[in-house]
Write a structure and sequence with these properties.
The complex is a heterodimer. Chain A is an all-alpha fold. Chain A contains twelve helices and two strands, in the order ααααααααββαααα. A two-stranded antiparallel ribbon of chain A has the order 1-2. In chain A, helix 3 runs antiparallel to helix 9 and helix 8 (about 130-135) packs antiparallel against helix 9 (about 145-170). Chain A starts with about 25 loop residues before the first helix and ends in a 10-residue tail after the last helix. In chain A, about 55% of the residues are buried. By secondary structure, chain B is mostly helical. Chain B has a domain at about 1-30. Chain B is about 80% helix and about 5% strand. Chain B has helices at about 1-25, 35-40, 40-55, 65-80, 85-100; strands at about 55-60, 60. A two-stranded antiparallel sheet of chain B has the order 1-2. Chain B starts with a helix and ends with a helix. Classes of the chains: A mainly alpha, B mainly alpha. Chain A: Pfam families: AzlC.
Chain lengths: ~240, ~100
Protein backbone atom coordinates (compact mmCIF):
# COMPACT_ATOMS: atom_id res chain seq x y z
CA UNK A 1 0.00 0.00 0.00
CA UNK A 2 2.04 2.96 1.21
CA UNK A 3 5.48 1.46 0.79
CA UNK A 4 5.34 -0.29 -2.53
CA UNK A 5 8.64 1.07 -3.72
CA UNK A 6 10.40 0.19 -0.50
CA UNK A 7 11.32 -3.42 -1.12
CA UNK A 8 11.66 -4.15 -4.83
CA UNK A 9 14.03 -1.23 -5.14
CA UNK A 10 16.64 -3.19 -3.19
CA UNK A 11 18.22 -4.95 -6.15
CA UNK A 12 18.76 -1.89 -8.30
CA UNK A 13 19.58 -3.82 -11.45
CA UNK A 14 17.67 -7.09 -11.42
CA UNK A 15 19.61 -9.77 -13.28
CA UNK A 16 17.64 -12.68 -14.76
CA UNK A 17 14.00 -12.78 -13.86
CA UNK A 18 14.19 -12.57 -10.09
CA UNK A 19 10.95 -13.16 -8.22
CA UNK A 20 11.07 -9.88 -6.34
CA UNK A 21 8.82 -9.59 -3.30
CA UNK A 22 5.66 -7.95 -4.50
CA UNK A 23 4.83 -6.23 -1.25
CA UNK A 24 6.47 -3.64 0.94
CA UNK A 25 8.72 -4.41 3.89
CA UNK A 26 5.93 -4.19 6.43
CA UNK A 27 3.66 -6.59 4.55
CA UNK A 28 6.53 -9.01 4.03
CA UNK A 29 7.47 -8.85 7.71
CA UNK A 30 3.88 -9.51 8.76
CA UNK A 31 3.72 -12.40 6.33
CA UNK A 32 6.91 -13.87 7.79
CA UNK A 33 5.67 -13.36 11.33
CA UNK A 34 2.42 -15.14 10.64
CA UNK A 35 4.10 -17.99 8.80
CA UNK A 36 6.45 -18.51 11.74
CA UNK A 37 3.75 -18.85 14.43
CA UNK A 38 3.67 -22.67 14.55
CA UNK A 39 7.47 -22.75 14.45
CA UNK A 40 7.61 -20.26 17.31
CA UNK A 41 5.39 -22.50 19.43
CA UNK A 42 7.81 -25.38 18.98
CA UNK A 43 10.81 -23.11 19.56
CA UNK A 44 9.22 -21.84 22.78
CA UNK A 45 8.78 -25.41 24.01
CA UNK A 46 12.42 -26.20 23.38
CA UNK A 47 13.57 -22.96 24.93
CA UNK A 48 11.71 -23.91 28.10
CA UNK A 49 13.53 -27.22 28.17
CA UNK A 50 16.84 -25.44 27.51
CA UNK A 51 16.15 -23.26 30.53
CA UNK A 52 15.48 -26.32 32.66
CA UNK A 53 18.58 -28.14 31.37
CA UNK A 54 20.79 -25.09 31.86
CA UNK A 55 19.57 -24.62 35.40
CA UNK A 56 20.23 -28.27 36.14
CA UNK A 57 23.71 -27.93 34.64
CA UNK A 58 24.48 -25.29 37.23
CA UNK A 59 24.64 -22.37 34.84
CA UNK A 60 22.59 -20.14 37.09
CA UNK A 61 19.93 -17.83 35.70
CA UNK A 62 21.69 -14.94 34.03
CA UNK A 63 24.18 -16.92 31.92
CA UNK A 64 21.56 -19.03 30.09
CA UNK A 65 19.53 -15.90 29.29
CA UNK A 66 22.63 -14.14 27.94
CA UNK A 67 23.37 -17.25 25.92
CA UNK A 68 19.89 -17.29 24.38
CA UNK A 69 20.16 -13.57 23.63
CA UNK A 70 23.53 -13.92 21.88
CA UNK A 71 23.90 -17.47 20.57
CA UNK A 72 20.24 -17.94 19.59
CA UNK A 73 20.73 -21.47 18.25
CA UNK A 74 19.05 -24.38 19.95
CA UNK A 75 21.38 -27.26 19.26
CA UNK A 76 24.55 -25.29 20.04
CA UNK A 77 23.12 -24.13 23.36
CA UNK A 78 22.02 -27.61 24.41
CA UNK A 79 25.46 -28.89 23.49
CA UNK A 80 27.20 -26.15 25.45
CA UNK A 81 24.98 -26.72 28.49
CA UNK A 82 25.61 -30.45 28.46
CA UNK A 83 29.36 -29.99 28.01
CA UNK A 84 29.48 -27.52 30.91
CA UNK A 85 27.09 -29.62 33.01
CA UNK A 86 29.25 -32.70 32.65
CA UNK A 87 32.39 -30.80 33.58
CA UNK A 88 33.70 -30.46 30.04
CA UNK A 89 35.99 -27.59 29.23
CA UNK A 90 35.30 -24.23 27.69
CA UNK A 91 37.11 -25.27 24.52
CA UNK A 92 34.86 -28.31 24.07
CA UNK A 93 31.76 -26.16 24.38
CA UNK A 94 33.06 -23.74 21.78
CA UNK A 95 34.06 -26.47 19.32
CA UNK A 96 30.60 -28.03 19.62
CA UNK A 97 28.98 -24.64 18.99
CA UNK A 98 31.16 -23.93 15.96
CA UNK A 99 30.42 -27.32 14.40
CA UNK A 100 26.70 -27.12 15.12
CA UNK A 101 26.43 -23.58 13.77
CA UNK A 102 28.75 -23.99 10.80
CA UNK A 103 25.76 -24.17 8.45
CA UNK A 104 25.07 -20.52 9.24
CA UNK A 105 28.05 -19.60 7.10
CA UNK A 106 26.48 -20.82 3.82
CA UNK A 107 23.04 -19.77 5.05
CA UNK A 108 24.41 -16.27 5.64
CA UNK A 109 25.84 -16.16 2.13
CA UNK A 110 22.51 -17.26 0.68
CA UNK A 111 20.62 -14.38 2.31
CA UNK A 112 23.37 -11.80 1.75
CA UNK A 113 21.89 -10.27 -1.43
CA UNK A 114 18.68 -9.51 0.50
CA UNK A 115 20.57 -7.96 3.40
CA UNK A 116 20.77 -4.29 2.52
CA UNK A 117 21.73 -1.27 4.59
CA UNK A 118 24.82 -0.33 6.57
CA UNK A 119 27.19 -2.75 8.25
CA UNK A 120 25.57 -2.48 11.70
CA UNK A 121 22.11 -3.02 10.26
CA UNK A 122 23.32 -6.03 8.28
CA UNK A 123 25.10 -7.46 11.32
CA UNK A 124 22.01 -7.15 13.51
CA UNK A 125 19.60 -8.40 10.84
CA UNK A 126 21.83 -11.42 10.29
CA UNK A 127 21.36 -12.45 13.92
CA UNK A 128 17.68 -13.12 13.22
CA UNK A 129 18.43 -15.58 10.43
CA UNK A 130 18.06 -19.04 11.94
CA UNK A 131 16.77 -22.28 10.39
CA UNK A 132 13.13 -21.35 10.92
CA UNK A 133 13.21 -17.78 9.65
CA UNK A 134 15.50 -18.79 6.79
CA UNK A 135 13.01 -21.44 5.65
CA UNK A 136 10.13 -18.96 5.84
CA UNK A 137 12.13 -16.17 4.17
CA UNK A 138 12.86 -18.04 0.96
CA UNK A 139 10.75 -16.71 -1.91
CA UNK A 140 12.07 -19.05 -4.56
CA UNK A 141 15.05 -19.51 -6.88
CA UNK A 142 17.51 -18.84 -4.08
CA UNK A 143 16.06 -15.40 -3.39
CA UNK A 144 15.14 -14.24 0.07
CA UNK A 145 12.78 -11.57 1.36
CA UNK A 146 14.37 -9.39 4.03
CA UNK A 147 10.93 -8.61 5.46
CA UNK A 148 10.00 -12.25 5.83
CA UNK A 149 13.38 -13.15 7.31
CA UNK A 150 13.14 -10.43 9.93
CA UNK A 151 9.43 -10.83 10.67
CA UNK A 152 9.83 -14.54 11.26
CA UNK A 153 13.15 -14.01 13.03
CA UNK A 154 11.78 -11.53 15.55
CA UNK A 155 8.99 -13.88 16.58
CA UNK A 156 11.27 -16.91 16.86
CA UNK A 157 13.81 -14.83 18.82
CA UNK A 158 11.14 -13.66 21.26
CA UNK A 159 9.91 -17.24 21.68
CA UNK A 160 13.46 -18.51 22.27
CA UNK A 161 14.46 -15.90 24.82
CA UNK A 162 11.06 -15.89 26.52
CA UNK A 163 10.94 -19.67 26.68
CA UNK A 164 14.43 -19.77 28.18
CA UNK A 165 13.31 -17.42 30.95
CA UNK A 166 10.20 -19.48 31.64
CA UNK A 167 12.27 -22.66 31.83
CA UNK A 168 14.75 -21.04 34.19
CA UNK A 169 11.96 -19.95 36.49
CA UNK A 170 11.17 -23.61 36.93
CA UNK A 171 8.28 -24.43 34.68
CA UNK A 172 8.58 -28.14 35.29
CA UNK A 173 4.86 -28.60 35.01
CA UNK A 174 5.10 -27.95 31.28
CA UNK A 175 6.89 -31.23 30.99
CA UNK A 176 9.22 -32.51 28.35
CA UNK A 177 8.44 -30.91 24.96
CA UNK A 178 8.97 -34.29 23.35
CA UNK A 179 6.00 -35.62 25.29
CA UNK A 180 3.83 -33.36 23.16
CA UNK A 181 5.58 -34.28 19.94
CA UNK A 182 7.01 -30.77 19.59
CA UNK A 183 10.18 -32.20 18.11
CA UNK A 184 8.34 -33.09 14.90
CA UNK A 185 6.79 -29.64 14.44
CA UNK A 186 9.81 -28.12 12.67
CA UNK A 187 10.51 -31.11 10.42
CA UNK A 188 6.85 -31.32 9.36
CA UNK A 189 6.77 -27.60 8.61
CA UNK A 190 10.05 -27.93 6.75
CA UNK A 191 8.41 -30.63 4.60
CA UNK A 192 5.60 -28.23 3.76
CA UNK A 193 8.19 -25.58 2.82
CA UNK A 194 10.40 -28.08 1.00
CA UNK A 195 7.53 -29.12 -1.23
CA UNK A 196 7.42 -25.67 -2.80
CA UNK A 197 11.19 -25.51 -3.22
CA UNK A 198 11.85 -28.60 -5.26
CA UNK A 199 11.18 -26.79 -8.49
CA UNK A 200 13.66 -28.56 -10.77
CA UNK A 201 15.21 -31.96 -11.29
CA UNK A 202 18.48 -30.49 -10.13
CA UNK A 203 16.90 -29.33 -6.85
CA UNK A 204 15.46 -32.81 -6.37
CA UNK A 205 18.84 -34.42 -7.08
CA UNK A 206 20.66 -32.06 -4.70
CA UNK A 207 18.11 -32.71 -1.94
CA UNK A 208 18.38 -36.47 -2.22
CA UNK A 209 22.18 -36.26 -2.33
CA UNK A 210 22.15 -33.91 0.67
CA UNK A 211 20.01 -36.30 2.71
CA UNK A 212 22.27 -39.21 1.74
CA UNK A 213 25.42 -37.32 2.75
CA UNK A 214 23.91 -36.17 6.05
CA UNK A 215 22.56 -39.56 7.11
CA UNK A 216 25.72 -41.36 6.02
CA UNK A 217 27.84 -39.07 8.21
CA UNK A 218 25.65 -39.10 11.35
CA UNK A 219 27.33 -42.21 12.83
CA UNK A 220 30.84 -40.96 12.12
CA UNK A 221 30.91 -37.20 12.61
CA UNK A 222 30.14 -34.77 15.40
CA UNK A 223 26.59 -33.38 15.35
CA UNK A 224 26.44 -30.45 12.95
CA UNK A 225 29.09 -31.79 10.59
CA UNK A 226 26.58 -33.89 8.59
CA UNK A 227 24.61 -30.71 7.84
CA UNK A 228 27.51 -28.62 6.62
CA UNK A 229 28.72 -31.60 4.56
CA UNK A 230 25.25 -31.94 3.00
CA UNK A 231 25.55 -28.46 1.54
CA UNK A 232 28.28 -29.85 -0.71
CA UNK A 233 25.40 -31.31 -2.74
CA UNK A 234 24.59 -27.74 -3.78
CA UNK A 235 27.77 -27.75 -5.88
CA UNK A 236 25.59 -29.54 -8.46
CA UNK A 237 24.55 -25.97 -9.22
CA UNK A 238 27.98 -25.22 -10.69
CA UNK A 239 26.94 -27.23 -13.74
CA UNK A 240 24.61 -25.23 -15.88
CA UNK B 1 32.57 -18.88 37.89
CA UNK B 2 34.64 -17.37 35.10
CA UNK B 3 34.89 -20.52 32.97
CA UNK B 4 31.13 -20.53 32.55
CA UNK B 5 30.98 -16.89 31.51
CA UNK B 6 33.93 -17.30 29.18
CA UNK B 7 32.12 -20.19 27.47
CA UNK B 8 28.82 -18.31 27.28
CA UNK B 9 30.40 -15.19 25.80
CA UNK B 10 32.70 -17.02 23.37
CA UNK B 11 29.96 -19.38 22.14
CA UNK B 12 27.77 -16.32 21.65
CA UNK B 13 30.49 -14.41 19.80
CA UNK B 14 31.28 -17.36 17.54
CA UNK B 15 27.61 -17.91 16.70
CA UNK B 16 27.04 -14.24 15.97
CA UNK B 17 30.11 -14.13 13.74
CA UNK B 18 29.04 -17.23 11.78
CA UNK B 19 25.60 -15.74 11.13
CA UNK B 20 26.93 -12.30 10.25
CA UNK B 21 29.80 -13.21 7.93
CA UNK B 22 27.75 -13.52 4.73
CA UNK B 23 25.50 -10.48 5.26
CA UNK B 24 28.35 -8.24 6.49
CA UNK B 25 30.86 -9.14 3.75
CA UNK B 26 28.46 -9.63 0.85
CA UNK B 27 25.35 -7.75 2.00
CA UNK B 28 23.16 -6.18 -0.68
CA UNK B 29 25.38 -7.35 -3.51
CA UNK B 30 24.35 -9.78 -6.20
CA UNK B 31 26.29 -13.01 -5.97
CA UNK B 32 28.28 -14.16 -9.01
CA UNK B 33 26.08 -16.22 -11.34
CA UNK B 34 27.74 -19.56 -10.55
CA UNK B 35 27.51 -18.88 -6.82
CA UNK B 36 23.86 -17.93 -7.17
CA UNK B 37 23.13 -21.25 -8.88
CA UNK B 38 24.76 -23.05 -5.95
CA UNK B 39 22.81 -20.96 -3.44
CA UNK B 40 19.56 -21.67 -5.28
CA UNK B 41 19.98 -25.32 -4.36
CA UNK B 42 20.66 -24.57 -0.71
CA UNK B 43 17.10 -24.18 0.53
CA UNK B 44 15.85 -27.54 -0.71
CA UNK B 45 19.12 -29.35 0.08
CA UNK B 46 19.67 -28.06 3.59
CA UNK B 47 15.98 -28.28 4.50
CA UNK B 48 15.92 -31.91 3.38
CA UNK B 49 19.09 -32.65 5.34
CA UNK B 50 17.68 -30.88 8.43
CA UNK B 51 14.49 -32.93 8.23
CA UNK B 52 16.46 -36.16 7.87
CA UNK B 53 18.85 -35.51 10.76
CA UNK B 54 16.12 -34.16 13.06
CA UNK B 55 13.99 -37.21 12.34
CA UNK B 56 16.50 -40.05 12.32
CA UNK B 57 19.56 -38.73 14.12
CA UNK B 58 20.08 -39.50 17.79
CA UNK B 59 23.50 -38.30 18.79
CA UNK B 60 25.76 -40.42 16.63
CA UNK B 61 23.26 -43.10 15.72
CA UNK B 62 20.40 -43.40 13.29
CA UNK B 63 17.11 -44.55 14.75
CA UNK B 64 13.54 -44.92 13.57
CA UNK B 65 11.25 -44.07 16.47
CA UNK B 66 8.05 -42.20 17.32
CA UNK B 67 9.29 -39.19 15.34
CA UNK B 68 8.97 -41.16 12.11
CA UNK B 69 5.26 -41.73 12.76
CA UNK B 70 4.63 -38.00 13.05
CA UNK B 71 6.75 -37.37 9.99
CA UNK B 72 4.75 -39.84 7.88
CA UNK B 73 1.47 -38.33 9.07
CA UNK B 74 2.78 -34.83 8.38
CA UNK B 75 4.11 -35.75 4.95
CA UNK B 76 0.76 -37.31 4.07
CA UNK B 77 -1.06 -34.15 5.12
CA UNK B 78 1.32 -31.96 3.11
CA UNK B 79 0.84 -34.19 0.09
CA UNK B 80 -2.96 -33.98 0.51
CA UNK B 81 -2.63 -30.18 0.79
CA UNK B 82 -4.29 -29.99 4.20
CA UNK B 83 -3.94 -26.68 6.06
CA UNK B 84 -0.43 -26.33 7.47
CA UNK B 85 -1.55 -25.83 11.07
CA UNK B 86 -3.69 -28.97 10.92
CA UNK B 87 -0.81 -30.95 9.46
CA UNK B 88 1.56 -29.81 12.21
CA UNK B 89 -0.92 -30.59 14.99
CA UNK B 90 -1.67 -34.03 13.55
CA UNK B 91 2.02 -34.82 13.13
CA UNK B 92 2.86 -33.78 16.70
CA UNK B 93 -0.19 -35.65 18.04
CA UNK B 94 0.79 -38.81 16.17
CA UNK B 95 4.28 -38.72 17.66
CA UNK B 96 2.99 -37.91 21.14
CA UNK B 97 0.45 -40.72 20.95
CA UNK B 98 3.06 -43.19 19.75
CA UNK B 99 5.28 -42.25 22.70
CA UNK B 100 2.36 -42.62 25.08
CA UNK B 101 1.47 -46.07 23.77
CA UNK B 102 4.99 -47.41 23.46
CA UNK B 103 6.01 -45.82 26.75
Amino acid sequence: MDSQEALPAEGSAPPQETPAPVRGFREEALYGLRAAVPLAVAVFGFAVSFGIVARAAGMGVLAPVVMSLTTFAGSAQFAAASVLGTGGGVAAAIVAAVLLNSRYLPIGISVAPAMTGGVVKRFLSAQLVVDESWAVGHIGNGRYSRGRLLGAGVLVYAAWVGGTAVGLLGAHYLGDPERFGLDVVSPVLFIALLKGQITSRKALAASILGVAIALALVPFASPGVPLIAATAACLLGLRK
Amino acid sequence: MTGLWLAVLLVGAVSMALKATGPVLLGGEELPAAMQRVVTLMAPTLLAALIATQMFGQGRSLVIDARAVGLVVGAFGVWRKWPTLLVVVLGAAATALTRLVTG
